[in-house]
Amino acid sequence: xxxxxxxxxxxxxxxxxxxxxxxxxxxxxxxxxxxxxxxxxxxxxxxxxxxxxxxxxxxxxxxxxxxxxxxxxxxxxxxxxxxxxxxxxxxxxxxxxxxxxxxxxxxxxxxxxxxxxxxxxxxxxxxxxxxxxxxxxxxxxxxxxxxxxxxxxxxxxxxxxxxxxxxxxxxxx
Length: 173
Prior knowledge:
By secondary structure, the protein is α+β, with helices and mostly antiparallel strands. The protein has four helices and eight strands. It has a single domain, classed as START domain (Alpha-D-Glucose-1,6-Bisphosphate, Chain A, domain 4, 2-Layer Sandwich). Helix 2 (36-42) packs across helix 3 (115-134) and helix 3 packs across helix 4.
């Protein structure tokens, strides 16, 4: 599988990290990680974002469900964005390269045991991110069809697992 997550330590906390190189300018990737219309294509929740340090980001996961809120921890236009989301911290760094842009995404985990589950979810989401950037249509595969084998592969690689899987009746693997 391409573009796998790595399980890393960030200041003593468990995290997953993705690095991907794109042949697109930094501004294009910035739009894809900050524009709610573009986020709706690949991010796992609808997002309303106040792009400034200390701003609010609102996540609506399911229709009719109560939205959750996070805080913008850092916002450097076109360069980096980080915020909280339900006990996790998400950070995006966009570094221009001669060929386009290096995209680095780090999800600092609130719970170590969610690593395999979160890595698999982001792998599926970032595949949609790739398709969005390339101008391709969305995948026709359902999230659970795409997610399950990726999740199992992260467990096989030794990523921490054991947290209940949402929508799986409390199943942990």
